[in-house]
Design brief:
The chain has helices at about 1-50, 55-60, 80-105, 110-135, 155-165, 170-195, 200-220, 225-240, 245-255, 265-285, 285-305, 305-330, 340-345, 350-375, 385-395, 400-410, 415-440, 450-460, and strands spanning about 65-70, 75-80. It is mainly α and about 475 residues long. Among the domains are: about 30-65 and about 110-175 and about 315-445, Na+/H+ antiporter like fold; about 260-305.
């Protein structure tokens, strides 16, 4: 009897873990992998468009003037700037949700688990920045040191997913955690080093709106409408403040509750009461009461999903398949010619960005990981070697979305911006090819089942 109960509980527990943790992670990884393909398609559309007879229509489209007047504030921008300052807020909001999820319950949730990916992310940011600075120190382009620091999660996870079983699952988790920590560092860099001037009046309004959001959050308001309205006001205030408006998305994500509205005890008690009400209504043949009880059960079940999880699941497909590809089309367009490529090859901007991503990323990630493990501060992921960490570092050199974003913040000179874009595109392609080839050449990782069989065989031989 007890054994049967234990088996039932064990099965239930495993199903709960799979439903609650494994499947959401798989859905997220699948979105990022397929999103990388759509992102690549967006970049190819931009390149083909700019290098076609219809090049002028590309520039005319993204330079279209837009105006938004809501009486409380008025915003006038080009369509391209509206994509970068408006649509990308949702992208950074989802990034912020990912960061908070990792900090609360993921690989960054405890110091012991966070040390290796966080240190690797720091090394993967410092290495590229130092290489870029070495090429551009003392010049007008030195301000672009933040461009090669970023890793594109969509492309990086997509490449590892395409490699399949040649890459151990713990290495994929490590790279995902590293990329999330890398995103956090990139957000700090944008907020601190790419803010030119501040409007304290606008910052005051932003702080006031933020206070209202905190108050209604503490008051238990769960309806999405008030948060959307206040979120738009907060974004507008941040846009006027001088701090890049996309930071508003990250701040709002950090305020999103990561716990369900109901505790397990409240859920069990309420569910039992509603089931009883449904059973009584069914016995009486009262269809309306039955539907009312079912609706309450549905609301109760949705309340057991935290707002963070709900928003991430709903918004991640939109950012992966709509917003980021639009951003790629708006920002990846570079008119390629023989003269332009010759100039780019000798340009310190292109060389700094490209070598920063292709060399600085893997070297920085590998060295900091090696130091952390050798000092006993962290352990390598299970079934993973330092050679595979180096391969993950090479894949992390795919810096696309955030790299293009920071490039747009770094340079007003179109020539310098194009040079940076060429470096980003060339380095991302090269990093993906080299990283994939390197990981494919490594011995296939042993599965956990193979390891278990080897341990059993060794045990049997000693017996």
């Amino acid at each position: 009897m007890l054994r049967a109960l234990d088996t039932f509980i064990g099965g239930q527990g495993r199903r709960f873990v799979v439903r609650r943790f494994v499947r959401p992670a798989q859905r997220f990884a699948a979105i990022e992998a397929s999103g990388g393909i759509v992102l690549l398609l967006g970049a190819l559309i931009a390149l083909a468009w700019v290098n076609s007879p219809w090049e002028q229509s590309y520039h005319d489209l993204w330079e279209t003037e837009l105006a938004l007047d809501l009486h409380l504030f008025k915003i006038e921008q080009h369509l391209g700037h509206a994509v970068n300052d408006g649509l990308m807020v949702l992208f950074f909001f989802v990034v912020g949700l990912e960061i908070k999820r990792e900090l609360v319950s993921g690989e960054l949730s405890s110091p012991r688990r966070a040390i290796l990916p966080a240190a690797a992310a720091l090394g993967g940011m410092l290495g590229p920045a130092l290489i870029y600075t070495a090429f551009n120190i003392g010049t007008e382009t030195a301000h672009g040191w933040g461009i090669p620091m970023a890793t594109d999660i969509a492309f990086a996870v997509g490449v590892l997913t395409l490699l399949g079983r040649r890459v151990p699952a713990p290495l994929k988790v490590f790279l995902l955690a590293l990329a999330v920590a890398d995103d956090l560092g990139g957000i700090v860099v944008i907020a601190v080093f790419y803010t030119e001037s501040l409007s304290f009046e606008a910052l005051g309004w932003a702080a006031l709106v933020l206070l209202v959001i905190l108050v209604i959050n503490r008051g238990g308001v769960s309806a999405i409408g008030p948060y959307v309205f206040l979120g738009v006001l907060f974004w507008a205030a941040m846009l006027k403040s001088g701090i890049h408006a996309t930071i508003a998305g990250v701040i709002l994500a950090m305020l999103t509750p990561s716990r369900p509205y109901y505790t397990d005890e409240d859920f069990d008690a309420t569910l039992e009461r509603l089931q009883t009400e449904y059973a009584l209504a069914r016995a009486d043949g009262d269809h309306d009461r039955m539907q009312q009880a079912l609706a309450q059960i549905e609301d109760l079940a949705s309340g057991m999903e935290s707002p963070l999880d709900r928003l991430e699941h709903r918004l991640a497909p939109w950012t992966a398949f709509v917003i980021v590809p639009i951003f790629a089309i708006a920002n990846a367009g570079v008119a390629v010619s023989g003269e332009m490529l010759r100039e780019a090859v000798s340009s310190p901007v292109t060389l700094g960005v490209a070598l920063g991503l292709v060399l600085g990323k893997p070297i920085g990630i590998f060295l900091t990981s090696w130091v952390c493990v050798r000092l006993g501060l962290a352990q390598l992921p299970a079934n993973t070697s330092f050679r595979q960490v180096l391969g993950a570092g090479m894949i992390a050199g795919i810096g696309f979305t955030v790299a293009l974003f920071i490039a747009g913040l770094s340079f007003e000179n179109p020539a310098h911006l194009d040079e940076a874009k060429v470096g980003i595109l060339a380095a991302s392609a090269l990093a993906g090819v080299l990283g994939s080839a390197y990981l494919l050449l490594l011995p296939a990782p042993k599965s956990s089942d193979a390891g278990l069989e080897a341990a059993r065989a060794a045990s049997a031989s000693h017996a």
